[in-house]
């Protein structure tokens, strides 16, 4: 504990940057506020371009030794970080909930175990990276995944530690060093992770954390000539700024962005399953990039679907995310609440009918909302709300279903509910989406490619795809002759 240490839900959190294995303060700070009750949790270091540059310099200095460390040793340290995450799971869960308002029960049972799994999975996967040698006119081709250098990782607030570690783990396992810039609305667990990594024996400078506003330090990170990779999860407008900032150095980018994903319910579907999956889209108060916020139902079952949906959604418990019984917690920030409300008000003005919700519950939460009678080209159908707001449209046949489903600028995910396997295959083939779920939702294996098409992103991460991004792939071609023959 130092004079700087904050105590958040009983857990000590250092609000300073973590650069080159040391805590570094900034001249300025910003106030971190809990979405649960609007209470100030503490003052966080407000990074400047100088600290961003210092973090990149630390990552650059640490790179040669970490890159030269064997994959097996790197994997051992990543497993030790996973051990640390598991040991401090309760603390991470309550700090994350206090900081971003997502459900404590989800953090405990799903998210934080997944954080540990991110480290274990990519540690193990790095040991399997291998491409069979092949021959060209007697010459051997050997493919290797070389570490690329310092990586800048920029993450949003809706799943802070899960999304950060899904990038950190492969980047480190690949032999790169990292500068993490967490979102300013949820900065705390990144700081705890820095402590855990140091305790696990990760050398100084291999992982650095710079806190602060993206608008103030983002450019210093993304335009830096020593940065070899940028992986960003966040909104489309920020992605455009990052791409422009990275352009002069042609720094490779991975962009995981927003979505407006469809959930298609065909008349041959198990309607109870369809309703369960539709109501699940309110998880994390709708602050989920993958959320299927556009429900498309075949006309003949729309009335029955709506009846069952309203009954099921009506049973959701909205309240304090620390309570076990709560299904929907608060929205991250009053500004986000304002944004959600604006979307709904404009939709209603444009002719939408409110089936449920359509209003704030209090100054922190928005009621789960379903809007119908919405035009395909309207804002509410075309733009990501990032709140608990779903739209319902109907379709007459498969062609219309596909046309409506595919008609946005996004392409992150799609969910189909149907009892007809052939239909599922046909429709899947016609949709543009990084992930398609058939009769399920959110099931994801770290081996699989993850990302979005169109404005939902650039590139894919996951399994080997993560290493393809975080590494400089090299093909070495060796002639059959030319060796000194000492035999
Ligand atoms: P955001 O774009 O506002 O911020 C994301 C991060 O970018 C934050 O850390 C922020 O500080 C930083 N940033 C802001 N300006 C920057 C700049 N000029 N340079 C560099 N960094 C900058 O997004 P958000 O509101 O925090 O997150 C919500 C968005 O994230 C939604 O659109 C959601 O769909 C998307 N998201 C996508 C995925 C995915 O995997 N595809 C996952 C989660 C969230």
Q: How would you describe this protein?
A:
39% of the residues lie in helices and 21% in strands. The protein is an alpha/beta fold. It has 2 domains: 6-257, Aldehyde Dehydrogenase, Chain A, domain 1 (3-Layer(aba) Sandwich), CATH 3.40.605; 262-438, Aldehyde Dehydrogenase, Chain A, domain 2 (3-Layer(aba) Sandwich). The strands form 7 sheets. It has a 7-stranded mixed beta sheet, with helices on both faces. α2 runs antiparallel to α4 and α3 (89-100) packs across α4 (104-128). The model has no long low-confidence stretch (mean pLDDT 97). Bound molecules: nicotinamide-adenine-dinucleotide (NAD). Nicotinamide-adenine-dinucleotide binds at residues 154-158, 163, 181, 183-184, 213-215, 218-219, 222, 233-235, 238, 241-242, 256-259, 289, 384, 386, 412, 452, 457.
Keywords summarizing the entry:
Aldehyde Dehydrogenase, Chain A, domain 2, Aldehyde Dehydrogenase, Chain A, domain 1, binds nicotinamide-adenine-dinucleotide, globular, seven-stranded mixed β-sheet, alpha/beta, 2 domains, 39% helix, 487 residues, 24 strands, single chain
Short description:
The protein is α/β, with parallel strands linked by helices and about 475 residues long.
